[in-house]
Amino acid sequence: MNRLLDDYMNHLATEKGVSMNTLEAYSRDLGRFIKFMEESGLKRIQDISSDHVISYLSKLRRGGLSSSSVNRGIAAVRGFYKYLIAEKKVVENPVASIEPSKAWMRLPGTLNREEMTRLLAAPAGDSPSSVRDAAMMELLYACGLRVSELISLTTNSINWQAGYLLVRGKGNKERVVPVGQTALAALDLYVGKIRPGFLKKRLSGTLFLNRFGSGLTRQGLWKIVKKYAALSGLGGKVHPHTFRHSFATHLLEGGADLRSVQAMLGHADISTTQIYTHVTRERLKEIHRRYHPRG
Question: Among 12, 132, 174, 264, which is disulfide-ready with 18 (CB 3.0 to 4.6 Å)?
């Protein structure tokens, strides 16, 4: 597949006269496309179906790409297949029925403040797992962390005195995110009283550990969140990214400016952050419809 991509890039450069910037963008988008397919176990371009393409685009959407970036990816793949068909490398075009659409960037699911309070109160009691889980969930909401960012935190990520986290995000980029007093208190309890018991005298810099002293996995965190979502009566409304979405939405509802929220979320492009302004507008429309006498 990579050889076919090289042939296509040469075709664009020599026969189509495409600019260097466009070539770089297409190479990046199509390289990501091929990598996804190879990681999905596909070795031949002919084996890729429309379902595989939809799975790829869904991954882009879940990764926080803006609708314009996702649509650019669709255009790149469509152009690639047009070339492959002309060169008789493939017979069918799996992208033919997939249209660019704003639907690829649906509004993220969020909880209102009362629901979030209920969810954060779900890890009740003072058992080791409850204290750890409370600290994790408070931190997810307090800092708007991605799952990968939370599970990769170390004890050195916390600046206790200044009250912030040093977070390593996408592209290995670091950012500083403030931590509120509630989350810091939950974190202090976990680190001081619970984490040493999980370590069992072993050495590890990973902040959040399981009962065997190893770092939590994405799947492990998902199970924890799912458990407390059920306990709080919120069920299918909650997944780990719900904390991040709610963090951004509640900040904007409270009057935070978009650039500050962008910095805290670690978005490279502010258009990705702007999706949350749509969320707040939709909520305002719903309030108006519900309470206005002529709504």
Answer: 12
Query: Please, which residues bridge with residue 164 across strands?
Result: 159, 178
Question: From the candidates 35, 59, 170, 259, which is the catalytic residue?
Answer: 170
**Segment-wise mean pLDDT, segments of 10 residues, the chain, 295 residues:** 89 83 88 90 85 82 76 87 90 74 57 95 95 98 94 96 92 90 97 95 93 92 95 88 92 91 89 76 72 70
Q: Annotated catalytic, 52?
A: no
Structural domain including 19 reads 2-103
Asked about 239 being catalytic, the answer comes back as: no
Q: Does the active-site annotation cover 170? A: yes
Same domain, 124 and 268: yes
- pTM equals 0.64
Q: Which of 132, 244, 245, 250 is catalytic?
A: 244
Q: How far is residue 109's CA from residue 278's CA, in Å, rounded to a whole number?
A: 12
Same domain, 117 and 159: yes
Is residue 244 part of the annotated active site? The answer reads yes
Residue ending a domain, among 103, 136, 162, is 103
* Cα–Cα distances in angstroms (integers) from residue 229 to residues 130, 223, 236, in the given order: 14, 10, 7
